[in-house]
Amino acid sequence: MIHVLSVASECAPLVKTGGLADVAGALPAALAPHEVTMRTLLPGYPAVMQALKTPEIIWENPDLFGGPARVLAGQGGGLDLLVLDAPHLFDRKGSLYLGPDGKDWPDNPERYGALCWVAAQIARDGAAGWQPDLLHLHDWQAGLTPVYLRQHGLPHVPTLLTIHNIAFQGLAEAEDLVRLRLPATGFTREGFEYWGKISALKAGLIYADKISTVSPTYAGELLTPEFGMGLDGVLRVRQADLVGILNGVDTEAWTPPYKTARGKTRHKEALREEFGLPESDGPLCVVVSRLTQQKGLDLLLEALPRLLAGGGQLALLGSGDKALEQAFTKAAKSEANVAVKIGYDEALSRRLIAGGDAILVPSRFEPCGLTQLYGLRFGTLPLVAYTGGLADTVIPASPAGLRAGAATGIQFHPVSTEALGRALDQLCALYREGATWRRMQKNAMAHPVGWEHSAADYADLYRAVLTR
Ligand code: ADP
Question: 87, 141, 155, 171: most buried by Cβ count inside 10 Å?
Fold first, then answer.
């Protein structure tokens, strides 16, 4: 049995802003059949504190980065939790990472530095008799842990750092070194210094034993300046220790609410009604997404006339950039076949993915992506950019893919309005053709999107880290 401490800043179903939470929440159960027990160390945000059942104090300190703190062991959200209860750091309303002004909390380095510090404490002293063999660290928020392990005299405790989003790098000012209890000797180009600042993510990339990211293609892309976001050089140095393991989805929670094509059609009709879209014999395309530059939805706005000319419709659920929210809202006002809801609504996202014929994911970069996996599972064919996890999970309706009868979706490259437009043309043509579309739906629904493969890969990786 391998005992793993997962160190995460968010974890479904308790607190979530993105895919990291889904992975941290899914791994413990997915790994159980592989002789791995996992406990999850989380910050004591209000939602986590409320969910925590039968808490037991296992560690206390009167001054953890500016205030009293303790670690509570207990259960919550179906998970075995260790919660860092430090009200001065985590007892805040609203978003996990942002203050009321929409900017990062100024003390984010201390907040997550404290989480890492405590992770190292648990590695040293255990948690009420439980001792982790290995630490699985998620993103920059857990990046300083290997530095603190060395501070605690534990350079031998193995660590795996998973990159979910390299765009967030956990930068802090150089003068925060002492406050963050970091060794000045590490503040070099070979250490965690990054252009005169401290980078928590770089610390993790330098000092973790192994690094993973959430798809094989993205692992390769991260080595290039285009995708590495300034850390590609560091990653090239660590290339031998970098692997990509795809995210899975919870296939129970994401079981299609229909068994037949007729059943799916009823969901489509209901969705058209809910979104006020007219009857149509063209494909109903859906989008469920954050509205940001990453997701390439500005390209979809530009290519929209191609979809409409092909007889297609669009129903979009998303929130984010105000300019994009406004542009889509405007398109919905002027086009009868476009409907938009601005907001974040999980139940509605399911109705969209159930009722749509296709789901559009034109991302500029996509470490793994989840919505195309939901689309596969529901027979809602993904139309995706050829990048990152989208490249690894969709078998394109290319001449070869169609000939082999293996296609599960449509891919386009490069990520441009023109290429997206051509893909939308292809989507409309395939939809009208009927038989090929149905074959692709069948393939898509049979494509494995659960955690089985990836959990086995993580368990193998843990074993590899432990036997180094
Ligand atoms: P990212 O983490 O970059 O946002 P992913 O595709 O990995 O992208 O994960 C996004 C998750 O958030 C998916 O589970 C998706 O269904 C969900 N999601 C995104 N936007 C919305 C929304 N407006 N309403 C409901 N769920 C959403």
Answer: 141
Taking CB atoms and a 6 Å cutoff, what residues make up the pocket around ligand 1?
A: 18-19, 288-290, 317-319, 344-346, 349, 368-371
Q: Which of 267, 210, 197 is nearest to 238 (CA)?
A: 210
Kindly report the protein residue whose alpha carbon is nearest to atom 20 of ligand 1: 289
Question: What are the structural domains of the chain?
Answer: 2-248+452-466 (3.40.50.2000), 261-446 (3.40.50.2000)
Rounded to the nearest whole angstrom, what is the distance from the C-alpha of residue 134 to the centroid of ligand 1? 30
Q: Average pLDDT, stretch 312-322?
A: 97
178 pLDDT tier (thresholds 50, 70, 90):
very high
CA of 18 to the centre of ligand 1 (A): 6
Give me ligand 1 centre to Cα 435, in Å.
31
CA 149 → CA 137, 140, 192, 390, distances in Å? 13, 16, 14, 36
Q: How confident is the model at residue 94 (pLDDT cuts 50, 70, 90)?
A: confident
pLDDT bucket at 187, cuts 50 / 70 / 90: very high
For ligand 1, mutation pick of 346, 352, 353, 363 (most atoms within 8 Å of CB): 346
Instruction: Kindly give the distance from the C-alpha atom of residue 467 to the centroid of ligand 1, in angstroms, as a whole number.
Output: 36
Residue range 108-166, pLDDT digits in tens: 999 999 999 999 999 999 998 999 999 999 999 999 999 999 988 988 899 999 999 99
As a whole number of angstroms, the distance between CA 428 and CA 193 comes to 51
Rounded to whole angstroms, the Cα distance separating 434 from 36 reads 46
The per-residue b/e assignment along 58-73, b for 16 or more CB within 10 angstroms, e otherwise, is bbebeebbeeebbbbb
- pLDDT in the model for residue 155: 82
- Any idea of the CA torsion for 123, 127, 130, 136, to the nearest 10 degrees? -40
Amino acid, single-letter form, for residue 64: L
DSSP reduced 3-state for 7:
strand
* pTM tops 0.90: yes
Mean pLDDT computed over every residue of the chain = 97
